[in-house]
From TrEMBL:
This is Protein translocase subunit SecY. One of its GO terms (cellular component) is plasma membrane. GO terms for biological process: intracellular protein transmembrane transport; protein targeting; protein transport by the Sec complex. It is found in: Cell membrane; Membrane. Its main location: membrane. Gene3D superfamilies: SecY subunit domain. It is a multi-pass membrane protein. Keywords: Cell membrane, Membrane, Protein transport, Translocation, Transmembrane, Transmembrane helix, Transport. Belongs to the SecY/SEC61-alpha family. It comes from Mucilaginibacter xinganensis. Pfam families: SecY.
């Protein structure tokens, strides 16, 4: 039971989701973009711990190109290691003894080439298309499973228990969860920043009040991914040590629908949200950048006092954001408890839903910006897409922000 559960809801289930189902089908693109994501996270953390990478992050376009090159090299190494592990997981130990070593090496190169092709495709989409190419590939892989999950749930409700009314209630609940996720992803705390006036020739620069949008969920989906990685440990231990699998606590933590599993999962998400926000958002650096550009928060001294103020604001808004992420993460388990199929329940929250919402909103903002740069009205005349900016008109005035 534990082995089956881990295959569907454990680390293999997570990898299969990011690969759009290719992992379970053992295709050339079985590893998908997950090695590239892992390499990006490692390089991002190195930018905090290693001075060389921290310097590259401040060098603008040239530094970004070098970081991307290091990410590609690291992706090749991670993919090669994961390819060997993947081959061992697909072949039984008895069969592995009969496999020619050249078979392993050949398939390692094939899987690595598949991941590098997906990475190249994502970078080309980023350069030539709209939005982040890697994120779009992940989103397409996740959303490709939605029609099948939708049909499976519809058939189970119309043929089995519940009926059509229950299915309609589930759809309404799904829409409500999506709306809640959009709110927490888009939620920001605007900090007013005043810039000093500068006179250059006959023109005046600055002297206007702008805002720094501090996101409630600055860590994004990363806390859920980190917490999921740790929550896979009990089921992995139970798989390698069958005698320990009978332990009540271990069984409870391995069952993703149990109370203790979800309580521990929520606590880990809250902790990782604070941790990842602390290492990715640097209020002191923000304060220094404002000071260099002649900006200051009204009523707060520039420099160290501004950094302390921004740190306090980020700490206050991160707490409700962490709790909101924890709620979204445990909703799929709650949906499974009320007998919603596991394939459909994962779209009620967790990693899948947050990635879908973030990528769709980011893509809408990119399209909106491109349209406004060409003096179109944008995607919608009613409503508002956050991220829309004012575009100067031909008369020299600016269009209102919608």
């Amino acid at each position: 039971m534990l082995s089956h559960q881990q295959g569907n809801e454990g680390i293999t289930g997570l990898l299969n989701m990011f690969a759009g189902g290719s992992f379970s089908r053992a295709s050339i693109f079985a590893l998908g973009v997950m090695p590239y994501i892992s390499a990006s996270i490692v390089v991002q953390l190195l930018g905090i711990a290693v001075p060389y990478f921290a310097k590259l992050q401040k060098e603008g376009e040239s530094g970004r190109n070098k970081i991307n090159q290091w990410t590609r090299y690291l992706t090749i190494g991670i993919t090669a290691l994961q390819a060997i592990g993947y081959l061992k997981s697909q072949i039984s130990p008895e069969q592995m003894l009969l496999v020619n070593p050249y078979f392993t090496i050949l398939n390692m190169f094939v899987l690595t080439a598949g991941t590098m092709f997906v990475m190249w495709l994502g970078e080309k989409i980023t350069d030539k298309g709209i939005g982040n190419g890697i994120s779009l590939i992940i989103m397409v892989g996740i959303i490709s499973a939605l029609p099948g999950a939708f049909l499976t749930e519809f058939q189970s409700r119309t043929v089995g228990a519940g009926g059509l009314v229950t299915f309609i209630v589930e759809i309404i609940a799904l829409i409500g969860v999506v709306m809640f996720t959009v709110l927490i992803v888009q939620g920001t705390r605007k900090v007013a920043v005043q810039y000093a006036k500068r006179i250059v020739g006959n023109k005046q620069y600055g002297g206007v009040r702008q805002y720094i949008p501090l996101k409630v969920t600055a860590a994004g989906v990363m806390p859920i991914i980190f917490a999921q990685a740790l929550m896979f440990i009990p089921s992995t231990v139970a798989q390698f040590f069958p005698n320990a699998a009978s332990n009540g606590i271990l069984m409870s933590l391995s069952d993703y629908t149990s109370v203790w599993h979800n309580v521990l999962f929520a606590i880990l998400i809250i902790l990782f949200t604070f941790f990842y926000t602390a290492i990715t958002v640097n209020p002191n650096q923000m304060a220094e950048d404002m000071k260099k550009n002649g900006g200051f928060v009204p009523g707060i001294k520039p420099g160290r006092a501004t950094g302390a103020f921004l740190d306090a604001v980020i700490s206050r808004i991160t707490l409700p954001g962490a709790f909101a992420l924890a709620i979204v993460a445990v909703i799929p388990a709650l949906a499974s408890m009320i007998h919603i199929s596991s394939s459909f329940a994962r779209f009620f929250g967790g990693t899948s839903l947050i990635i879908l919402v973030q990528v769709v909103l980011d893509t809408l903002q990119q399209i909106e910006s491109h349209l406004l740069m060409r003096h179109y009205d944008g995607l919608m005349k009613s409503g508002r897409v956050k991220g829309r900016t004012a575009i100067p008109s031909a008369s020299g005035t600016s269009e209102p922000v919608i």
